[in-house]
Amino acid sequence: MKKKVSNSISRRDFIGASALAAASVGAMSTGFARSNALAKSKRDLMLQVLDKSGNPNYIPAGFFLHFPPEQRTGDAAIKAHLDYFRATGMDFVKIQFEQSYPKMAEVKTADDWAKIPVLTEEWFAPSLYIIKGLVKAAKSEALILPTMYSPYQMAKQAVPKETLLKHVQEDPEAVSRGMENVTLSVMNYVRAAVRAGVDGFYTCSQGGEASAVADRVLFNRVIKNYDMLIHKEVAQLTPFNILHVCDYEGAYAEFGPRFHDYPGQIVNVPLAAEGKPLSLTQAADLFKRPVMGGIDRHGVLSTGTPADVKKAVELVLKDAPTQVILGANCTVRTDIPIQNLQMAIKTAHEFRA
After folding, report:
1. Across the chain, what does the average pLDDT equal?
2. What is the DSSP string of 178-224?
3. Domain range 17-351, its CATH number among 3.40.225.10, 3.20.20.210, 3.10.50.40, 1.10.10.10
4. Contact between 123 and 132 (Cβ < 8 Å)
5. Confidence band for 303, pLDDT divided at 50, 70 and 90
């Protein structure tokens, strides 16, 4: 049973819309290319990935990007997300998060982290407006999954990353006081989004890279403790969450021991970890759950032809586990050819048909 969501929590407790619209007719015809998929909605096709006893003959897929600045707020953002979802034929609506934690220039020493404010639900109103609009427009078609950045990711928006990492080394307990406030802020956003009707979240984690907080004791104290508070709450509030272990800022020298116990029904993994390639099958064995990924955001998807993309996707899916969602290892480039995205998704849909 899912928990009842309160209004707030106390300390206690790329592509222009016109181009997408023009491309959408062809993409829509490929999204459900086989008759066995036509009988199910995209919501059903995503949810069947969670059935470990099943043998699905349809592989869902999804890629996402940051829209141009003029399409990141209000009705323009709602339209951009819808146009992109329908143009690509992807199987869920993934909502980008485009707000930044207020800059905190006054944080100069570790003790100053106590000054980090707790952001109220009202502060997240721009993001919640987009979520509500997409829930109204598309929840009957597909799962609605907004991005949830980790407290660490939000904290380094408020304080420069170099300063944050320096303070973590100097006084992790003092930094933790600020991380608590950031965590409470993210929780206010999460609970408001749940009340708005989302099906889950794309929950991100970062900070354990070799170039960040490599020491596992410090990582656990300042990053993982707060990740887990939110991720466990999200797991109780919503039924479908994708854990994204982000390697956008560098590789992980130690991967499995840090993240294997993070909640999330699906895991979106990097293509490499601990200095060697990480296949989708290896990731599924490590996390004991379905996985998402397989495609390099900087590789053939960005630089190749649709024919190249088709070959690459088939190669990845040939050795993929049964419960899988095709995707990239992170957000793709804004200028990526939409024909390549359409081909990748179409190939996934037809691979087992």
Report:
1. 89
2. HHHHHHHHHHHHHHHHHHHT----EEEE---STTS--SHHHHIIIII
3. 3.20.20.210
4. no
5. very high
pLDDT of 31: 41
DSSP 214-273: -SHHHHIIIIIHHHHHHHHHHHHH-S--EEEE--TT---SS-HHHHTT---SEEE--SEE
* Token pair for 275: 């200095």
Closest CA to 253 of 205, 214, 294: 214
Integer Cα distance of 299 and 302 in angstroms: 6
Report which DSSP code applies to 100: -
Q: Which strand (E) or helix (H) includes residue 295? A: strand 291-295
Angle between helices 172-196 and 125-138 (to 10 degrees): 40
Q: Which residues sit opposite 94 in a β-bridge?
A: 145
**What's the pLDDT at 256?**
84
Structure tokens at 339: 């024909």
Which stretches of 91-171 are DSSP H helices? 125-138, 151-158, 161-170
List the domain boundaries for the chain: 17-351
Find the angle CA(148)-CA(151)-CA(153) to the nearest 5 degrees.
80
What confidence tens digit (pLDDT) does each residue in 16-73 have? 433 443 344 334 334 434 444 555 899 999 999 999 887 889 999 999 999 999 999 9
For 103-117, the pLDDT digits (tens) are 999 999 999 999 999
